[in-house]
Amino acid sequence: MDRKKLEQGNEAFITKMKEIRPDFFDELKKGQTPDYFVLACSDSRSDPDTIFSALPGTMFVHRNVANQVVHDDESLTIGLYYAMRVLHVKALLILGHTGCGGVMAARQGLANEFLDPWLDHVKENIQGVDQLNADDNQFVRQNIRNQLVNLKDHPVYRDIGKGIPIVGALFHLETGQIEWID
């Protein structure tokens, strides 16, 4: 690990934030009031804060491989609960991206004892796409659509999510653009 590179990046971040808003860190320590709960893929190329040019404190982010809503995922459940009940986010966003390795691994039937339980969820969520005539991103879109349904059906959302909109988006790695998914 190149700690020096990380330290330099941190120093650049501090300098930039102080230039943009001199009181940034004083405000940040007071607490968070994010507008959005974002469920995004773990892929290092698809960081929600970077994609939306969001400052720290704007988005409450949960990440996993292929942005899956799994009802018995305790980490997702507590994050979703905290975002809605304590932070009072205004919207929930499912953020996928083109070229998702998790979706492609599930589509190709990749088998691995460590990956199989998670990829089984992904496989379920890409059903209904024409295997022969679809491009890879049609599977990613289908996955996002199904995550929207899964989130609406999540016990925490059903219990306390009334009135909080859920939206889906596809981040295009090749252009940087967002495509909204219904």
TrEMBL record:
Stored Pfam families: Pro_CA
Cofactor requirements of the protein: Zn(2+)
Binding site for Zn(2+): 41, 43, 97, 100
Record keywords: Lyase, Metal-binding, Zinc
Recorded GO MF terms: carbonate dehydratase activity; zinc ion binding
Family: Belongs to the beta-class carbonic anhydrase family.
Name of the molecule in the record: carbonic anhydrase
Species name: Bacillus selenitireducens (strain ATCC 700615 / DSM 15326 / MLS10)
